[in-house]
Structures are given as C-alpha cells and as structure tokens.
Design a protein that fits this description.
235 residues, alpha/beta, 7-stranded parallel sheet, 7 helices, 14% strand, disordered C terminus
Length: 235
C-alpha cells in the first residue's frame, strides 16, 4: 500500500496568519508538499502560483466561487435561477486552476434557498444541478480537469446544504455519466450523516477523486463505528 500523502487546507490551517500567501508559505515551511484552497479568488492567480512554487507546494484542489455570501449562498451548482452565475464562476475557477496547475475543482452544490421547503424543491434543484454538471464536465474536459462533488452534512455543519450524503452524490454522478466528475470523500461528513463508514468507503471508493478528514473545531463523539471523537466545527 502506498504511503498516505497529506495536503494542507490553508483556508482552515494557520488561522493566525492574515492571508493565503502567508499561509501557503507556512504550509511549505511545515513540510507539506501539497495544499488546497477553498476560495483563492481574493488573490491574483499569478501571485498564488508564484508563492506556491517558492514554497514547494502543488495546489491540488480549489472550490468554485460561493456566490453572494451576504445573502447566505455557499455554492451555486444546484440553486434555481443562478445557472448563469454558476457558469461564470466555473470559468473563473478554471482560470485559477490552470494558472495554479491545480487538477481538481470542487463544484459546490449550494444551499436550499432561504424559506424554501427542502422536500418541495429537491426535484427542481437536482434538475438544475444535473444541467450545470453536464455543462461543467464539458468545460473541464477541454482543460483536462476533474470536477468533484462533496456531500456536506446537514446535521451539524450546514442544515441547508443540498448535497448531504455520498448516496445522493453517487446517484447524481451516475445520472450525469461523465468520467471527469467524481466524488470527494470527506469522512467527517460521511460519518455524521450515515455512520457505516467502512461499508460506505468500500462502496463508493471506485468513484472517489479526492479525500479528506474534516479539520479543526471542537471535539465531540458521534454515533456509529469510528472509535474516536470527530471534529464538529461548522464551515
């Protein structure tokens, strides 16, 4: 078995440092060889690429833009009426990924709109997500990039997030049917939503294109099979 390799998520690590450039330098100085950035868009891509190169880091993952954070948006992929904004954000993410040499982009699904009933809008949101993912798959394929779907738990982290289980994500990936769209495995979210972590990892590992335990936060035990405490701070 190949040894595990870890990347530093500098959106969470080194919070004592004010900006992404400083955090990338800190990750390199701490011995990391790879890093991911949730939203790199506050810095010019050329500056991020230069600092990462100087720090000896490979950028391995970025997210699509979150949308309007002041209005509570956290991704736009499945949000009705925001298709044009999602596609615009995708183009920005691709520009950054190419400049950074980053091979993967997390295609954020987004939240159930405020005031909407989840059950009532799930069908419409899935239709929008499928439409946007088919578009994204074509855009990413032209640039030899991979798009990832990450379920985010709705019990602790984000009760309004649309995509919240690996089962839901796998079903959507099957409907889209594009090999450059894959599953992002975050065992924190998987464990909270379903438990049965070993079984789920075995079932979904063939479509996984990125993995990660959830960093940071307070420590609180959760049900099911992991014999250790799980960090539960929200995003």
């Amino acid at each position: 078995m190949a040894p595990l390799r870890f990347s530093a998520n500098v959106s969470w690590l080194f919070p004592e440092l004010p900006g992404l450039l400083e955090r990338l330098r800190a990750a390199g100085n701490s011995g990391f060889k790879a890093a991911e950035v949730g939203w790199p868009y506050a810095e010019p891509p050329e500056a991020l690429a230069r600092v990462a190169r100087e720090a000896g880091l490979q950028l391995v993952l970025i997210n699509t833009p979150p949308g309007d954070r002041e209005k509570g948006e956290l991704g736009l992929g499945a949000v009705p009426g925001r298709q044009a904004a999602f596609r615009e954000g995708l183009e920005q993410a691709v520009l950054y990924a190419k400049a950074l040499g980053c091979p993967r982009i997390h295609l954020m699904a987004g939240r159930v709109p405020q005031g909407a009933d989840r059950a009532a809008v799930m069908g419409e949101m899935e239709t929008v997500f499928l439409e946007n993912l088919r578009h994204a798959a074509g855009v990413l394929a032209r640039e030899n990039l991979v798009g990832l779907l990450e379920p985010i738990n709705t019990r602790i982290t984000d009760p309004q997030y649309f995509l919240d289980t690996p089962q839901q994500a796998a079903a959507i990936l099957q409907k889209v049917g594009r090999p450059n769209l894959q599953l992002q495995m975050d065992i924190f979210h998987w464990q909270i939503m379903d438990g049965n972590l070993t079984g789920n990892v075995r079932e979904f590992l063939p479509i996984v294109g990125g993995t990660g335990p959830r960093p940071g936060g307070t420590w609180q035990p959760w049900r099911a099979e992991l014999p250790l405490s799980i960090p539960t701070a929200g995003r």
